[in-house]
Amino acid sequence: MPIPSDFGCGCCGRKFPAQQCGPVPSTASDDPALRAPRDALLSHSPLPTIDKNFVHLHVHSDYSLLDGCCRIDRLMDRAAELGMGALALTDHGNLYGAIDFYNQASAKGIKPLIGCELYLVETSRLEKHGRSDEGKTIFHLGLLAKNLTGYQNLLKLVSDAHLRGFYYKPRTDFETLARHAAGLIGFSGCLASLVPQRLLGGDYEEARKACGRFVDIFGRENYFIEIQDHGIPEQRQIIPGLLKLAEEFNLKVICTNDVHYVRSQDAGPHDALLCIQTGAKIDDEKRMRFDGTQFYLKSRAEMEKLFIEVPESVTNTQLVAEMCDLSIPFPKGSERYSKYPLPPEVKSDRAAYLRDLCIAGLKKRYGVDYATAKEFSAVPSEASAKEGPALAQTLVERLDFELSVIGATGFIDYFLVVWDFIDWAK
Predict the structure, then answer these.
(1) What is the structure's pLDDT at 67?
(2) Which residue in 83, 260, 287, 398 is a FRET match for 106, CA 20 to 30 A apart?
(3) Distance CA 414, CA 249 (A)
(4) Tens digit of each residue's pLDDT (9 = 90 or more) over 293-349
(5) CA distances from 112 to 57, 95, 190 (A)
């Protein structure tokens, strides 16, 4: 389906190419209009004095296709480097990276928080007509799974969105969300979400109704007001309204960074990725772009400095992480492939054993000695005699390439098992 020419930005919901996100020189703390609601909230929500941690709860990996460019292994390395004890994954509309993220985080000693940023419509997900503009007719909704029930409900929501609700995006609706809300934590979200969009339009009463609707679905303890500041004026504009809603509904506030790349210097490659997504060129002036380099995995100190006037929004992220206790079961036999049992006489690992078998096969079928790629055995095969050293070099290069692909994709055991029963059958 073609991409509309004036689609909405995932970070702020504004249309392009007519407008672009951009930083402003002032800070939120400079504006008295922003301070008053925050001060009022602080008087009702004292800053915890024990927990000094911070957890990123809004993170997109490269499974947010053509939008996020955080490779999970690099994301984990950076999180470990920053000393983070927990980290969330909230890819756009899918859970493709959930298991990989869960396993890699667990291996690093980082608590994995599995979530998704769904696409929500106010009408029915089954209605498929007209335009589908992010922030206008379709809204972002960040969710995290508290437990196994929540994870299973998240799977149901995402699957239903793809199978029944897909129209430009995989969409869900309030009715479906309410049926599968058990075990889930919800957030008011980024600028492309429903509550922020109502505030951005200057309609506090509609924002209040939307907020109340989410509170009814998730429960007050499971719904959080989310504030962001990437230097985008609209984000700062709605902070007073968000804090007012938090006070009115007695909701906790969390701050997030809309992580799309691991380090600030990755902003350039991410910009190129957006061009691939939208079919634009980097030199095009009027195109979708994330201005600035703020959409990266920031340290706790950076987030604390950014939200210095709402300090509990930093520590409340740890509270959310503590609410999540998800253990994904992997029953015996549920692995994708069996583990090949190495013969007792084999002292190497499975990868080396497969390589040795392939090298032996290369010798048997083509008369090519792998160790001396351009030399042939004393009795070369007919094929090698005809083709000479060029064929030997080609075969060795092809073998190395294919073995590297098999290893990188985790198919070593699969190839050994299949080789074993074919070898026995012969």
Answers:
(1) 83
(2) 260
(3) 54
(4) 888 999 999 999 999 999 999 999 999 999 999 999 886 655 556 788 998 888 889
(5) 10, 13, 21
- Hey, what are 425's tokens? 């059958």
Q: Is the peptide bond before 46 cis (omega within 30 degrees of 0)?
A: no
Question: What SS3 class is residue 172?
Answer: strand
* Neighbouring residues of 204: CB distance < 8 A, sequence distance ≥ 6: 198, 241, 244
- For the chain, which ranges sit under pLDDT 70? 1-52, 135, 291, 331-337, 373-388
β-strand partners of 172: 120
Helix pair 350-366, 389-408: axis angle to 10 deg: 160
DSSP string, 284-331: -SSS----SS--B---HHHHHHHTTTSTHHHHHHHHHHHH--------
Structure tokens at 26: 């002032």
The CA distance from 76 to 71, in Å, is 9
The tokens describing 396, both together, are: 């060795």
pTM: 0.69
Q: 215 with 221: CB under 8 angstroms? A: no
Residue tagged 């009715």 (tokens): 175
Q: Which amino acid is at 152?
A: Q
Token pair 């972002």 is at which residue? 140
Could you give the CA distance from residue 395 to residue 63 in angstroms, rounded to a whole number? 35
